[in-house]
Amino acid sequence: MKVACIQMDVLQCRKQENLEKALYMALKAVKKGAELIVFPEVFSTGFCYENLSHAAESLPSPTLENLACFSEANDCIILGSIIQKDSGEACTEDCGEFGGEGGMEDRGGDSGKKGSKKGEKGSSAKEKEIPESKDSTERKNSALYYNLGFCFESGTLAGTYRKTHPFKAENGYFSKGGSIEPISLKKQNLKIGFEICYELRFPEVARKLSLAGADLLVTTAAFPNPRAEHWKTLAKARAIENQIPHIACNRVGSAPDCTYFGNSMIIDAWGEVKADAGSKECAIVCDLDLAGKDEIRKAIPVFEDRRIELY
Description:
single chain; alpha/beta; six-stranded mixed sheet; 24% strand
């Protein structure tokens, strides 16, 4: 399967501009044959805590509707995450209805400085505490906000995933998801294990997804400077220890108080990096052998040799 990472600079709180750029870059990937496309974490807004009510969308979401149209028109799979607002009435844990480590270390996931028209085919530092905003007060009083992962297959919402491990101050803005299960694609007969940013540091997440039958691991992220070596090591480790292909999609550019290094990677089940996006805004596309994991698991039977009675 040809897969792609859209490594983009996310403009803070500028939803429409980010969406248009993401779809433009995704189209370029489709033209190179990409069948599965991954966007970075909260790609449409960044960690827009200063205007959370504007950044967040209730379901059905206008941003997701645009992505659904693109996915249908180009017969492709799209994954990423957005900020979701849930009043508690319209959405259950599955979030099924339809028609950073993130920011900085204190803005979202794990950070650097502590502290087309619809349907159109074409188109090192000190930690800082983020003061509670009016939007944060609103969240506590009337609504829940989630870092919502999504997956579309040929225009259909195949599944969603609410980030279960918010990072540090992200906990002051986002509620935690309560379920870790693969997303099943009917058309491709494929199970995708989906995790978001900081969750890359929890081997239990990827292992649970692998034990549940995931064929492919996808991590959408906003992993910042100065932790590039952590990112590279952890992304490869999750592939090697679970003997599963891994698409790890990061962002570049800057937020108000941190910068991002990129290094989005497409990794096979042996742990070999097939493509690395480096530090610039770009889309990487690569053929990924999804069946190779079966031979690797036969050669090195890690899953068969697990001593589950001991751990």
